[in-house]
Amino acid sequence: MRVDRCGRLLAALGIASLLALPALEASASSSATSSASRQTTRQIALQRGGASAGRLECVPYARQVSGIDITGNAHTWWRQAEGRYARANAPEPGAVLVFRSSGGMRLGHVSVVSRVVSSRHILVEHANWPGPGFPKGRVARDVSMIDVSDRNDWTTVRVEIHGDRDGFGRHYPTYGFVLPRLANGAPLPPLNPITVARARLDERAARAAARPAGYVGRPAALTDAIASEIGDVAEPVTRAPAPVVAQSAVQTVAQAAAPAARPAAQPAPAVRVAMFTPRESLHDDEMVFGAPDRSLR
After folding, report:
1. 79 occurs within a structural domain
2. pTM for the full model?
3. How many whole angstroms separate alpha carbon 259 and alpha carbon 23?
């Protein structure tokens, strides 16, 4: 009797195993297909320039536009540039402003100076600085950036809000500017990508630099906001006056006898200031836009 029961139990277990075998095979096949699909997706992303293939980071774009051959997280550029590139705390066209790691921008940020408007106002271009209505990974040009540091050394800045609102974001700490020349004053050599992945990133950045920007700054719409922070938007960059040279009596008489020279034409202001009435006063909630909550640069 006991043998019969054991036989029936073994027979039942065998039948159950046979019935479960197709389900196990189907599950294994589905798992293998899913794994292959994930691998294919990852390979496609890598072939297109990285896991975030649809988004351009700030580092490759700044490297491509400035010619400064530094890789790695943005906040490390200042340290990496020491001894290799000239550095300063005053802007010039082509220089890269290096943001420190702070708050939601733990990897820092880099922006390239495109124009110096005044000693406290510059226009920059960069990638991956989103705003309201302006997504991550896009290129922005002619963006206003103002220096709000106490000593006018560009260690604290505010950046124009990108998107469908006017105004400036919060205060961001920075290191300073990496200048577009070597530490010994020599011109920059050509970029030299040493890996396939780096070459792909540089190629994507070059294509982005050749296309129209996703956002173009509006300095005229920020006149009041800039004036309240740093003064006149069209304030020229201050330069030391030329030394006064004493003239002899003969030179003085000769100048008096010479015909009066026509006054030189005044150069156009650095920024054309439009006469307008602000759409509405800026509120605190309009000042919070700027860098993303998490930085992937």
Report:
1. yes
2. 0.64
3. 104
